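Hi X.,

You mentioned you wanted examples for the new student's onboarding notes, showing what a folding record looks like when two proteins sit in one file. Here is a clean example. The first protein comes first, with its sequence line followed by its structure tokens.
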Amino acid sequence: MNDIDAIIKKADKLRPIPQVANKVMLIVQDPDSSIKDLSEVILYDQAVTANLLKICNSAYFGLRREIDSLHQAIVFLGMDQVADLVLLASAAGNFKIQQKGYDLRENDLWRYSVSSALIARDLAEMKGLKNNHFIFTAALLKDIGKVVMSQYVSDSFDKIIMLVSKDGLSFREAEKEVTGLDHAELGGLIAKKWKFSDNMVNIIRNHHLSEKPADSDIETSIVYLADIICMMMGIGVGSDGLAYRFYPDVLDSLGFSETDFQQIMVNFSVKFQKVEDMINKV
């Protein structure tokens, strides 16, 4: 068995994103959907229902009366916030573990992924896009390949760094050169196996804009740009973040200003803290 076969086989051991999370995402993207539609999808998933009730009744919200039904929880939190919490809770198990190959400690990849998702949604809102939940999810899950690749990157770290320093490759390019597969390509394979939409698979696979047509897709470009902003703020800068391909023409094509970036960074810490406080209740 070659390295690629072994890597893909190991990917089968990841915890798949539950179907309920996929269904929730589709519902909140539909402008004609209702609280009743969302409630019916979640109702029979005991873990999701219990977590939402737990969050609503936590000290974080300090309510005077107890929320004891899923319908009440959705009314209180709102459909968008419920969707975020379901997706975040579904992804947490895979992302919170240490990624030694990328020099990311326990919870580092998780914090980075959530940060990237929040920033990507802000960028999408600034551009007036309607599919913000889709972009949020793509940014959240884009580095799922790292969870599997970490071991192989760790084993080949010296070879990868040598290619970066001597040949001027990005970390991702060197990763592919040594193992035959990079974490973005692997992420795309995982997303396809989990039956995500073709669009989601393409964004995860190309979130580094490694394939030239990807930079003309506004959704993929926004997810890429969210990555860049995270690194500017020092979030998720592991071993690969120190050798990252930056494409300044993407900034020009999207039309974001320096003021836009500053506004996103100012808003970010408050939003992240709120999400982190709620997620800690899950």
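Then the second protein repeats the pattern, sequence line and then tokens:
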Amino acid sequence: MRKSDDVKIIVALDYSCAETAILMAKQLDPGKCHLKIGKELFTRCGPAIVEQTRALGFEVFLDLKFHDIPNTCAQAVRAAAELGVWMVNVHASGGRAMMMAAREALEKVSGARPLLIGVTVLTSLESRDLEELGFAERSTPLVARLATLTESCGLDGVVCSPQEVKLLREQRNKDFLLVTPGIRPQTAEADDQKRIMTPAEAVRQGSSYLVIGRPITQSRTPLLALDNIISSMAI
């Protein structure tokens, strides 16, 4: 069993410089969490930030949400795999050809293959936002449809809000991963996330991995905050 099978928390390193991100990583425990590196940190620091966090023992979710023509997306995903990341994602709305090209690219990589996850609907979007963008469906049926497409393309799972987890867990294969941002302990503010849930609720609904940022990274004692969240999930 991979170490990651027992670690459910992914801490979002939403920082603008490597020094601050590494300082935070050093206050955490790779046996208790993974790390997420997103667009801003990766754009400013490049592949070096992945190498630095992996050197500390962490498995890294490279959250760049690739969305492009199939060949370009496939090559980007392959480049991420060659960095040694544990998980990488693409937008499911990029379509079948793009997702299958990304999956096939990873099958050609030597060594451990990263998990490939499809992003359904961003947790900052509500149904009225989707309507403004021209989507006829509300968020929940759209997420379900994109999850069905993602699974049919052979990807490992999806990113979805915790509010869609129960439905997707009932519909999808038991091994299909559900990665859920929008996780907030009861004492935390919602910030810019709209479709949110507590860690314990999300686990009960069937989340595979919980992406949590500010409730941990803005705490004066990040490791204690992480421990408290893990404890709350066991209740």
